[in-house]
Amino acid sequence: MIFNPASGRGRGARRIRRYLDALQRYLPDARHGVTTRAGEESDLAAHAIDDGYTTIVAVGGDGTWSHVADRILASGRSDVLFGLLPSGTGNDFGRNLALSHRSPEESVKVLVEGAVRRVDAGRIRTAAAPTDRPHAPAVGRHFLNLVGFGFDIAVIDAAARARFLRGELLYKITALQQLFRFPGFEVEVEDEDGVCHDGRHLMLTVSNGRYFGGGFPIAPRATVSDGRLHACSIGDATPFERFRLFNLAERGEHPRSPRVRLHASPGFRVRFPAPPRFEVDGDVFQSAEAEVVVEVLPGALQVLAAPVSFARQST
């Protein structure tokens, strides 16, 4: 068990005891570690893999889960089961697996009683580094939920400066602010079949899962087991039209807009005038190149999750 006490703007620390109490009842032999710095989830996961553990559980949000999943995938160990317990800000990837962020008890029950599911992951084939650790750009960073460009980064930057908001409200308030401030950006998107489109955009997301931003169904047709990534390109617009698009996206109705283009493919090449900053499951990366290449890894992870029938009912 890998706990991130900084997840959810401190909610992770407050939930550690509740999770440990539930784990004592259901999994008394579980061992756990607690992160003390950003990105330490990766190191703890690597140590667990080296020590021969075959089930590794990450307790946090999308960023924590992503760090641990990346380490499992990079290890090449196909026998390692991955568990997720929600304690973060968005918990968007967990929504695809019907994980409840409201009840630690119920989340632990899903972990113990749930099914093992094969789920897809994504991989970034372009050299990039986290902006808080920029020293050594690496190729092959994996992601669980989403890679985002443009408006998405502006919202993350604004959210990092916000002091009194958290959870879904944090994203919604900062997103509304950026609707009137973000200048837009130029981008060209190409899928694996060579289908290409370009122009000035408000936002571009390449999703493995359906949700982002604390529950926005940005990729309404995506599942985490369809063997494809789902690009959502949103063209730039006036502040009023941006506000309308925001309201549509909150309900998953943004595909109705002529400014929105949805496209599914095993991979995408995304080109910019200069190396961009982009989001990977809530963390900000700086690309070393002007072209960012992403691909899907079908069925790459074995995840402990609710049975598929229950997951469908929950969504």
Mean of residue pLDDT values: 88
CATH architecture of the largest domain: Sandwich
Work out the radius of gyration: 19 Å
How would you spell out the order of helices and strands? EHEHEHEHHEEEEHHEEEHEEEEEH
Description:
This protein has 315 residues and is an alpha+beta fold. The protein has 2 domains: 2-119 and 301-314, Rossmann fold (3-Layer(aba) Sandwich); 124-298, Tumour Suppressor Smad4 (Sandwich). 31% of the residues lie in helices and 31% in strands. The protein has 9 helices and 16 strands. The chain has helices at 11-26, 40-50, 62-75, 92-95, 104-113, 151-161, 167-178, 239-250, 308-314; strands spanning 2-3, 33-34, 55-60, 81-86, 115-124, 128-130, 141-143, 146-150, 185-191, 196-207, 229-235, 260-265, 267-271, 277-280, 283-287, 291-305. The chain has a 16-stranded mixed sheet that branches. A hairpin with a 4-residue loop joins β9 and β10 (196-207). The longest helix is centred in the N-terminal third of the chain and has 16 residues, at 11-26. The chain is globular and about 55 Å long. The two termini are 27 Å apart. The model is unreliable at 309-315 (pLDDT under 50).
